[in-house]
Here is the input.
Amino acid sequence: MKTALRTAVVGLAAAATVALVAAPAAAHVTITPSTTAANAYTILTVSVPHGCDGSGTTKVSIKMPEKIIAVTPTVNANWTVDKVMADLNPPVKDSHGNEVTKRVSEVVYTAKTPLPDGMRDAFELSLKLPDAAGETLVFPTVQTCEKGETPWVEVAASGQNPDELAHPAPAFKLTAATGGGHAAPAPSTSPAAGGSQASDADSGSDTRSWLALVLGALGLIAGGLALVRSRKTA
Ligand SMILES: [Cu+2]
Here is the structure.
């Protein structure tokens, strides 16, 4: 009986540790859209939760999917921001009927002072999502650091779990259009439904934290019981 209990306690403690250790992996450079509805205006929050293997971040370059034409980056006092333009061939018409010949192909945030590892920063991009429900938008992002860089550009093969990738490219899937108007979207407060690598990552770590908590509590109870029992028999 005693050994069975001890094994249970050790097992629970080990499981709790695994759950805790696994949690950090989810904190990669990610994108959280305020909405994923096709053809809607959205705010994308690009999160940078750590550096490159301990080195501080000096630049973050976010490539835009082909179907995204215009982007309005939010300024951030710690960084300068540039839009890299590319020719649109053929040109397209914007929602006001004007001809657009160039698109924003990349947004580059450059740090005024390096963002230390262990500190987080985030950028918000306002844009209109393409009218392509069901399509996954991928934002290959290169994080440059004082030492080295991390290319968040890996895309999961179909059926592959993005969490298996070492450096997944931020991405999310477009959902059905909601017929939303031209009004500016509310800033992102929570991970939107349907975001693939973005929102799954967040919910995964919450679940893991809860799991670790529950397992930890169970471990404590089992330990306490063992103690009481051992006192009784002594
Ligand atoms: Cu990470």
User: Anything to note?
Assistant: DSSP finds two helices and eleven strands in the chain. The pocket of copper (II) ion is lined by residues 27-28, 50 (CB under 6 Å). The first helix runs from residue 2 to 22. The longest strand covers residues 99-115.
